[in-house]
Design brief:
The protein is of the alpha/beta class. The chain has helices at residues 26-34, 50-53, 86-102, 111-119, 128-131, 156-161, 223-240, and strands spanning 6-10, 12-16, 19-23, 38-42, 59-62, 106-109, 124-125, 147-151, 165-168, 175-176, 183-188, 194-199, 206-209. Bound molecules: manganese (II) ion.
Length: 241
């Protein structure tokens, strides 16, 4: 039981100097490693490859990125929706289902909580400023705790953070709308925007957050480090079975 858990980290493709390249923010791989995991970048492949690519993995980290195609949750596309990556959407939807089948511990961050919600039948708020006029600002503060979130007392998230309210960074213009099947909201911003959701049963460790804990692991507050540590523990338990 001495080996560190192996974690698959989702990524995107982007044209850089005219060549499509696979990329993920280094903050994810660094945060995983700092919490004692072995990070492996998982490229967006064919959805039929999703289950096979999780073989040998102890956990899945769904990362941030592009807006999800609203057609996947039955909505007409709002004018603010941009950068849709259809292959990534399809692959990650399949990953969520494969992870659920495999009971693979899953940490879903930003776009990750959104794709998990959509894969499980939920919807999204496509653009917070347009659809939620009284909302506070959720965009473009990557390196500071810009708003608070209130944690649902009995949630896995509140227990693992050992807190009722925490401060978070915020880099999103979309949010979870109606919850997908099997999910419960675990964190809300003061304006009511959903900032956390998780699987309700004990049979699958799926914890989703709308903020970016990977950007905050060097701060004085322990919450984001605790989130990655809890994910590492769940992944370690998984392969101990
Ligand atoms: Mn936010």
């Amino acid at each position: 039981m001495s080996r560190p858990p192996a974690i698959a980290i989702t990524s995107t493709t982007e044209f850089i100097r005219h060549v499509p390249r696979v990329r993920a923010n280094e903050a994810y791989t660094q945060a995983a490693r700092a919490a004692g995991m072995r990070p492996y970048i998982l490229p967006p492949l064919d959805p039929r490859d999703a289950d096979d690519m999780l073989e040998g993995m102890d956990g899945l980290m769904l990362t941030g990125g592009e807006d999800i195609d609203p057609a996947l949750y039955g909505a007409a596309r709002h004018a603010t929706v941009e950068d849709v990556h259809s292959q990534r959407d399809a692959f990650e939807m399949a990953l969520v289902h494969a992870a659920r089948e495999r009971k693979l511990p899953t940490l879903a961050i930003c776009r990750g909580i959104q794709i998990a919600n959509v894969a499980l039948g939920g919807t999204l708020v496509q653009d917070i400023p347009s659809e939620w006029p009284d909302a506070l600002s959720h965009e473009n503060v990557r390196d500071q705790r810009t708003h608070t979130v209130l944690l649902a007392p009995s949630s896995r998230l509140a227990k693992l953070l050992d807190a009722q309210e925490i401060g978070v960074n915020s880099v999103h213009h979309q949010a979870v709308g109606q919850l997908g099947s099997g999910l419960v909201a675990t964190a809300h911003a003061p304006d009511g925007i959903i900032e956390g959701a998780e699987w309700t049963g004990d049979d699958w460790w799926l914890v989703g957050v709308q903020w970016h804990p990977e950007e905050m692991i060097a701060t004085a507050e322990p919450w984001d480090r605790q989130l990655f540590s809890a994910f590492a523990s769940a992944a370690r338990e998984r392969f101990a079975l």
